[in-house]
Amino acid sequence: MGPIVAFFTRLYGPRGWLTLGGFIAVVLFVIPLLRLLPPEHSLHLSDYFVLLIGKIMCYAMVALAMDLIWGYAGILSLGHGLFFALGGYSMGMYLMREIGTEGQYRSHLPDYMVFLDWKEFPWYWAGSEYFWLAVLKVILVPGLLAFVFGWFAFRSRIKGVYFSIITQALTFAFMLLFFRNDTGFGGNNGFTDFKRILGFPLADPVTKTALFMITGLFLVLTLLACRYLVISKLGRVLAAIRDAEGRAMFSGYKTRDYKLFVWTLSAVMCGIAGALYVPQVGIINPSEMSPANSIEMAIWVAVGGRGTLVGPLFGAGLVNGAKSWFTVAFPDFWLYFLGCLFILATLFLPRGAIGLLDRLRRKT
Amino acid sequence: MSLTGYRKIALAALLFAALAPRAYALDAGAVQQLAAEDGDAKLAAINRLVTEGDVAAIGLFKAMQDDGLQIFNGRVVIVTGDGVKDAIHGETLVVPPDKLEAIVVNNRIRGALDSAIAALKLIVPQRAERLAAARAVAADAGEEMLPLIERALEKETDAEVKTLLAQAAAAIGLKSPVAERRRLAVQVLGQSENPQTKQLLAALLEKTPDGGYTEPDAAVREEAQKAIRAIDSRAVVPQLLGTVFYGLSLGSVLLLAALGLAITFGLMGIINMAHGEMLMIGAYTTYVVQALFRQYFPGAFDAYLIVAVPAAFAVSALVGIVLERGVIRHLYGRPLETLLTTWGISLVLIQLVRMLFGAQNVEVENPAWMSGGFSLGGGVVLAYNRLVIVVFAAFVVLLMWLLLNRTRLGLYLRAVTQNRAMAGCMGIPTPRVDALTFGLGSGIAGLGGVALSQIGNVGPDLGQSYIVDSFMVVVLGGVGQLAGTIIAALSLGEINKFLEPYAGAVLGKIIVLVFIILVIQKRPQGLFALRGRSAEA
Lengths: 364, 537
Prior knowledge:
The longest helix of chain A is centred in the middle third of the chain and has 27 residues, at 205-231. Chain A starts with a helix and ends with a helix. Chain A has helices at residues 2-11, 14-36, 47-72, 80-98, 111-115, 131-155, 160-179, 205-231, 233-243, 245-250, 255-281, 291-304, 310-329, 334-348, 352-363; strands at residues 191-192, 196-197, 200-201, 283-284. Chain A is built from 15 helices and 4 strands. In chain A, the strands form 2 sheets. Chain A has a two-stranded antiparallel ribbon with strand order 1-4. Helix content of chain A is 71%, strand content 2%. Helix content of chain B is 66%, strand content 5%. In chain B, the strands form 2 sheets. A 5-stranded antiparallel beta sheet of chain B has the order 4-3-2-1-5. In chain B, strands 6-7 form a two-stranded antiparallel sheet. In chain B, helix 9 runs parallel beside helix 11. The A-B interface holds A 76, 152-153, 155-158, 160-162, 164-166, 168-170, 172-173, 176-177, 179-180, 291-292, 295, 298-299, 302, 332-333, 335-336, 338-343, 345-347, 350 and B 271, 273, 327, 330-331, 335-337, 339-341, 343-348, 350-351, 354-355, 464, 467-468, 471-472, 475, 506-507, 509-510, 513-514, 516-518, 520-522, 524.
């Protein structure tokens, strides 16, 4: 028992575990129980609410992944939307196969393929009907792409702004690729009209609640994994790379390998978030890969406070909560708000909202 | 234009008539006969009018098609929105509307009128209209028209119209039952510049389901193959030139989009994600200037660009200076923060424009002298607006070069970018130079916006579609190198256009992006990196 307890106490203190336990209890018990209440009840939670919170939890995972490389390793990626979307597309392919012959044209092919007059699935759709393969692809596709790209980029010591611009070009190129109908991923419209996952109908509130709970669990696991990483020696080396890469290199650390590892890990985390996102939202299309989306991810982290793990969670919740409120209440002002958030957060909150809280606490 | 059945025959008859000697006034009897109850009498009248060969009848026929030809007190009159005129003598009449009586025009008459107008147009004095009429005949003519076209050929003096008529004759000749005539026709078609001719010839070589060819005679087929080869080989050089030109034009667009960035990012090191919005502001300034000209100086509309160019520069430069003073100067030395902040600024600017001008694209009209183009032959046309942009890009580059190398501001600018501290010690007001330099970069982006407004849509998202491309150009060219930016932009344009026929536009673009990413792996400082001490800065 001793070492296990020590391991857990190293990750978080009692207050941390208490908060985390509270979160798990809410996600796994309180919200599902409230879902069971009849719709007339005042405490009943609507599908919309569960979807919104589920989405934000996916975004929070993305924010953690961003923070891992930007906040801890100092690499600003403007292409994480690509990994998110690739995870989503990997899951989406499986969900498209689950539709079976219930599409509009009653064909075993997805509607858009019938529309393009294709007679069979292209080769890269092979095996997409198996769930386990989809799960594997969710991890491998973003992971491999990130590994190959990172291997080349870090080897030639591309860093700072150059790296950011190139990642942006990467996601832009993929967006163009996926927009083509001939690429075989539904072009403009992407994948939608999903019916089932593992045989469970997606329209069923029970399935929705289950997906929500799974997302919550994955978020907690991601957080713990990140926490483990950043308090380990690896985390310290990453911070050293961020603050003075030259010195870390001359102290004998292979900074390239460290960066490559955390970059790939971050991409995989993004891919998982995307795979959880797609069945809940019910659509994935190439606009998820637009450079604007990726750069928005950076602002979640910046607003919350990079270099902390709570900050990005908070930032993702705040920005996306504000987004869903603004786009309904004042659709014309959302871009103003987001733009000002970018400007003010970087000018006045270099350490994000968490830094601001710290400063306030110290004053009192 | 498709002429069917009897209409073709009618046209043939009319064309015959049109070639007869001309009279100088409309035949009053024939015009009067247009009002006849009987359809055949009307047709005969139309025939007579064409026979007389007076092109004034075209207006009459058009009025008749629009039901504008009516009867008043037994006289045939033309009714327009402006009033009523006598159809024969043209004097204006005052007619109460209830006294007018319509002339019935059924579909048969309408068809005959179409043919009559087409036939008369072949002999109008205006070359352009004659050319258009000849084109219509060349595109679609029946066998029965062959003798008429041949006779029109004799009278025609203009070379281009003559060629078209000859080809129309040859296209008809292809259908001749005599193999030798078909072969001669193929020979004539082999000299054609019309891209459709190749299809016409290729159709001869197609196989029929029963194993033979559409063209039964082997000699004709051989001749057709020769003709196709001749057309192809004549098209090779113009097509190559066309591709080079369009690559150059795309490169110029990229260059105009990226030049401003070459200053703000390349020389100053500021990651300005709002750079695309400077392009957009320039384009919208053009739109506003154009709208003002249309409102207040419609006569000088074609000259609006002369005002738009400095206006766009001034507006974008001003916005740039305000941004630099207000926000960016607080972020010097923090590139990633600058990136995020300027992105935020771009969002605000986009939304601002969207609220001022609406989310829809606005229409910027080209001045008349920029529309059209000239033909290189082989179906390749160089558009004038593209040509103007190439020249404009060269002009902007020259302007920038002069500014950087021949003015005091340029000297200060180079001094500050090379060694800020030392420049400050020498008494150069570095903050002011920073602001002016950023303003210069933004202003040049505004000039790019003027160019973009002439070739594409102007909308709030205009800048977003150029931001990735612009950065790619600057990064590829090597930061701090204006010459590198120019070479990078032009070569990217050429590569894109040469890839397009093989890979398609989108895939070509992707290949280019991947290529850039690979090049940067090999040469992280860009293709034309500075070497030595200045590379460290």
